[in-house]
Structure formats: structure tokens, C-alpha cells
């Protein structure tokens, strides 16, 4: 009789334990999934983007413009100050120093994680290619691309491109072993300067 009660108690204990395990296990899996989802809610993965396949949902450009932007990898081209539009010349001349540039904002808009872009800053002795490693949605309009230069120490050689599509305003920051640079661009034209001459990308929120 003594052993009979023992076996009954053991059986009940096993049944209750199994029931508790089955009840709580799905919740633990769900909670774990939720935690992993919360870590980077504003970052795009290579397989996660808009229906168009690009970080931004609607670029509002023609098919030809889209195809040209997808094929292009050079982000901007140097121009003379006289080549700047009169309305942008004042904007780009906050400092007399720096390299005046033309910039097509659609080029970076068509780039995804793993794509390569090129920086031709010959005035500063910089001519490099870099790969996009992260894309962050700052808010409903502003997106930031981050990349690393090929065959360089990534902690010291990287770039960020923070862009408002609505305001056609962009800040590019370049960090390299030959110097750090920043470009402020409005309506496709702007100026590249050394970092101590430029502005902070927080100013993007003011435009």
C-alpha cells in the first residue's frame, strides 16, 4: 500500500510537470521572438524593404531615371563654382573652402545592403569604393545609409549618407585614414569640406 501511494504520487507529479512545460513553452518562444524583433525596429535587412525593393516606398521618378540611378555608382561629381545654380551658389558658399559638387539623390535611393558606391574626391586625394552595410529609417522621410570602404579598417574608414527625400537635402560624412569630410547638399548641389569646416548631420532635421 505504501509503494502504491508513492507510484500514484509520482505519476501525478509527472503529468502536472508535463502540463506546465507544454503550457509555458509557446509563450517563451513568442517572447523570445518579440525581443529579437525589438532590437532593430528601424533598420532594413537585405531581404526587407519596400515593395519596390528599395528602402523608400515611392521615389516618384521615371523608369529611365530609375534604371540610370541603379546602374550609377559614383555618388557625386566635382564642378566649378560657376557651374552651381544661382540659388544653390549661396547655399554652397557658406565657406569659400571645399569642393563644389553635383549630386543625384536617386543614386543612393536605389542602393541596398551589399551594393557598392564610389567617392571621387580627388581634391582631397580620396578615390575609393565602399559597400553599404546598414540602412536606417530615421523617421517617415529621412533615411541613413552606412557603408565601409574596401580593404580598410572599418572602424576608421566608413561613411554615412543621411537624406531627406521630401526636402531634397543630404548630408554625407566620410571618415578615412587620409582625413574626415562632410558634404551638405541641397537640390542636387553642394560642397564637400573637411570635417572641421562642415556641419553636423543633426541639422538635417531643421530642413
Automatic annotation (TrEMBL):
Segments passing through the bilayer: 6-24
Keywords recorded for this protein, A-Z: Membrane, Transmembrane, Transmembrane helix
Source organism, top-level taxon: Bacteria
Name recorded for this polypeptide: Metalloprotease secretion chaperone CpaB
Source organism: Acinetobacter rudis CIP 110305
